[in-house]
């Protein structure tokens, strides 16, 4: 813009108008520092010896002068707010499932995708005015990985069912927002160059130390995002692989068709003489039934000790979906009852349970008094000791472990370097690394000392005193924990019909892990089945 003085016919120069004179309010206004909301060029004169262009360091040289750039920034902030609200809702749903928000998977994957989205948007907002090619490249890699995740979830039926609409929406939103961040950075870079060319005569290629530091920090952060997304993609691939593992039995929808539980039965309902045999109903402890108890029951069936047995996976264990939160032992007992009814299975039942599973079995027994013909408790957890699994510290650790479970560091390392199989991850020794398993443990922790404790205390008052009872205790556990041994003694009085209480000296908490423990379990089960047969015969007579 050219500046010219006005001529006066008398003295050769016309006085400047009042508003242009030094000290006038108008001139003071035009000399204010420009900001992102002022026009690019105002009526102030250029600096001395200027060619009409602004200095590159002038604050007026900013991409914020373009409405397109401002538009992108406003919407990026809006998207960040929306994502944060969604993140809070997902965080709450881990502990209390809002209506329609229940995920049949762990709920940790959708939470992780949303956390990653917040990270991408925060980088875009904080480093908005410092566009960089490296930042666009790293974010593009994240976008590609998220796109792969989205395709996997949508194309693998089991993943699609487990993640549900919540997980699908979260990964799609994460992908779209990553692409948005790339677009935003590209438009800001274009706007910066356009404004520099128009106001300074050339695009600025220099960067200040502050700008280089910002670029470095942003690139490092997005590089970390690449590693996180890569690990999540690998873990999702393992989940897709594990979904192909064949299972015995069926998944059955329960609780108003909100989720599925796995139930399997093996053997004949009648004996050789045509009488109805009691069915052994297996309730696992702190691990899926398939890891320990079910193989033992299978051997007992092969040996002829029992004629038929059924086993299931509590919600979150083995092949079962996670249930909505909160979820107590009584709710598990109800889910088992519904699954048995839907599959057409009928008693009489002999309940064999271990550890925490004994709590579920006792509640189930109190709600099916006429159908339960015997109880076999294997180193059971007493209701007065539920505080051990319901401590806040344990809950916090489970929550933290669940949050990082989508990274699958142990699972990926085990599969790649140690040759761990699908069986190991689904129901075996390393099932504890599964996000659904962690969520189930967290759910048990949250209500152990409240809902579950009240349910099992009520069950004890309802329990029939005539039900045959066998109690087998871990010698190692009882010898090292006086309180545990005392509570085992109390559980031996659960009914008035105690057939046997055995303490296996060298057996751990999972007593079937020793030969002596397995032998003692099978011998006592034979006695319990015989007592159940006699009881059924007396009823028929």
Automatic annotation (TrEMBL):
Ranges that cross the membrane: 74-96, 108-130, 137-159, 165-183, 212-232
InterPro entries (UniProt xref): AB_hydrolase_fold, DUF2417
Region span, Disordered: 1-56
Domain of life: Eukaryota
Biased amino acid composition, Basic and acidic residues: 29-42
SUPFAM superfamilies documented for this protein: alpha/beta-Hydrolases
Keywords on record: Membrane, Transmembrane, Transmembrane helix
Protein name according to UniProt: Mitochondrial integral membrane protein-like protein
């Amino acid at each position: 813009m050219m500046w010219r003085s006005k001529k006066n016919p008398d003295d050769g120069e016309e006085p400047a108008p009042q508003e242009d004179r030094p000290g006038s309010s108008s001139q003071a206004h035009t000399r204010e520092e420009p900001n992102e909301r002022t026009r690019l060029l105002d009526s102030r004169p250029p600096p001395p010896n200027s060619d009409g262009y602004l200095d590159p360091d002038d604050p007026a040289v900013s991409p914020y002068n373009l409405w397109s750039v401002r538009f992108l920034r406003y919407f990026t902030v809006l998207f960040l707010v929306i994502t944060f609200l969604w993140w809070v809702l997902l965080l709450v749903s881990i502990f209390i499932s809002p209506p329609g928000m229940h995920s049949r998977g762990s709920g940790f994957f959708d939470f992780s995708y949303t956390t990653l989205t917040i990270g991408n948007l925060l980088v875009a907002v904080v480093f908005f005015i410092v566009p960089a090619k490296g930042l666009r490249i790293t974010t593009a890699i994240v976008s590609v990985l998220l796109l792969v995740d989205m395709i996997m979830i949508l194309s693998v039926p089991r993943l699609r069912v487990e993640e549900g609409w919540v997980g699908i929406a979260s990964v799609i939103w994460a992908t779209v927002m990553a692409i948005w961040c790339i677009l935003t950075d590209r438009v800001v870079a274009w706007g910066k160059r356009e404004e520099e060319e128009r106001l300074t005569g050339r695009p600025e290629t220099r960067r200040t130390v502050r700008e280089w530091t910002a670029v470095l920090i942003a690139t490092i952060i997005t590089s970390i995002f690449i590693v996180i997304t890569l690990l999540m993609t690998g873990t999702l691939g393992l989940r897709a692989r594990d979904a192909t593992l064949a299972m015995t039995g069926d998944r059955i929808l329960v609780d108003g068709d909100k989720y599925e539980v796995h139930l399997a039965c093996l053997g004949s309902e009648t004996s050789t003489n045509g009488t109805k045999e009691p069915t052994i109903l297996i309730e696992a402890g702190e691990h899926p039934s398939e890891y320990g108890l079910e193989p033992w029951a299978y051997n007992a069936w092969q040996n002829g000790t029992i004629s038929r047995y059924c086993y299931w996976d509590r919600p979150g264990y083995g092949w079962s979906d996670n249930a909505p939160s909160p979820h107590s032992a009584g709710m598990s007992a109800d889910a088992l009852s519904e699954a048995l009814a839907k599959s057409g299975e009928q008693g009489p039942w002999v309940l064999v349970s271990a550890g925490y599973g004994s709590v579920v079995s006792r509640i189930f027994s109190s709600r099916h008094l006429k159908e339960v013909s015997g109880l076999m408790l294997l180193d059971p957890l007493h209701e007065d000791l539920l505080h051990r699994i319901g401590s806040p510290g344990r809950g916090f650790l489970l929550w933290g472990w669940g949050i990082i479970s989508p990274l699958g560091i142990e699972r990926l390392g085990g599969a790649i370097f140690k040759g761990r199989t699908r069986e190991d991850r689904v129901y075996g020794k390393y099932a504890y690394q599964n996000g659904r398993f962690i969520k189930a443990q967290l759910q048990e922790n949250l209500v152990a000392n409240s809902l579950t404790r009240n349910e099992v205390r009520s069950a004890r008052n309802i329990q029939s005193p005539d039900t045959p009872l066998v109690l087998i205790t871990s010698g190692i556990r009882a010898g090292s924990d006086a309180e545990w041994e005392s509570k085992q003694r109390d559980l031996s009085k659960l009914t008035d019909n105690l057939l046997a209480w055995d303490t296996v000296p060298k057996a751990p908490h999972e007593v079937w892990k020793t030969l002596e423990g397995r032998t003692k379990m099978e011998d006592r089960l034979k006695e319990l089945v015989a007592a159940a047969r006699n009881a059924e015969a007396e009823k028929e007579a």
